[in-house]
Amino acid sequence: MKKLTSIFALSILFNSIDIASAQSQQKDYEINPYTLVYEGALTENESGKVNIHPVKYNLNGIEIVANVYTPAKYDASKKYPAITVAHPNGGIKEQTAGLYAQKLAELGYITIAADAAYQGGSGGSHRHIDKPQNRTEDIKGMADFILQYPGVDPNRLGALGICGGGGYTLNAVKSDKRFKAVATLSMFNSGQVRRNGFLNSEVNTIQDRLQKASEARKMETTGNITYAGVASITDEELEKVPTKFYRQGFEYYYRTHAHPNSTFLYTMSSLMDLMTWDANDQIELISQPLLMIAGSEAQTKYMTDESFEKAVNAKEKELFIIPGATHIETYWKPEYVLKALNKLNGFFQDNLQ
What we know:
Rossmann fold
């Protein structure tokens, strides 16, 4: 696999992306046969080019839906490095996880992006359960599946986690040494934020929120499901969101890259598990090479900084900052995606030999 070392070289792979505003990326998911909503998404499989393969598999009794991307001129008799791509909180495989999976496939990797159990198109009830143990198992389940895929070299498996998927990817690789290299993009420590609030703004209400979560679980025994999060947002409400991270997030998920399977909802009872979990617990168990990427303007950057510092046993760890990028802009903005991919390509090629 030829190494591409320059952003210019990588930009050739982005010739289908229109360098325009986020608003120009708005598309009806029904237009794409795979319901992909990111710019430059595949619309058909062509011989000799990157192809997409919708797949389903069973994980602990739950049907998982995923997309596998294979490189151009894919030959099942050869051996390729593979990468799992874990989606953000509220996200699905058709959004930024799919974008990065497709672009990494264009660089020569076999990739997989799956919807988390209980979320997106995957099975599981109640819907929108969002527990760290499930999300961690989702990543290990992607590894189970892709390591059996024709052409995958089992000794060259990497992991990429985006936003909440980054925190859960860190958790997965602590114990799962099938992963030989791990990278995160705009990592979000879901447990820390659900417990302490974003930017540690809700530490005084922890016990009250745990009580609400406990009451919600009690109600679930009678079939009444209580949800936290946001199901939709009006333009007026969007204008009043005070935090750039959440405002841009709502714009991404409910405007420019909307998909009916993607929602910010999660069961209130999930907080019982989320608030007692932290991506940094036992993070010293990570021994693999580690790359953490964040935007210089990301309000979530403090989470990447904390995890990076605490991952003391990670081999050849590196913190890579994208100047000018916010958290959400690393999901879609071509100039920032190019920089992230350029760095990811070099990292995975160096560590998935």
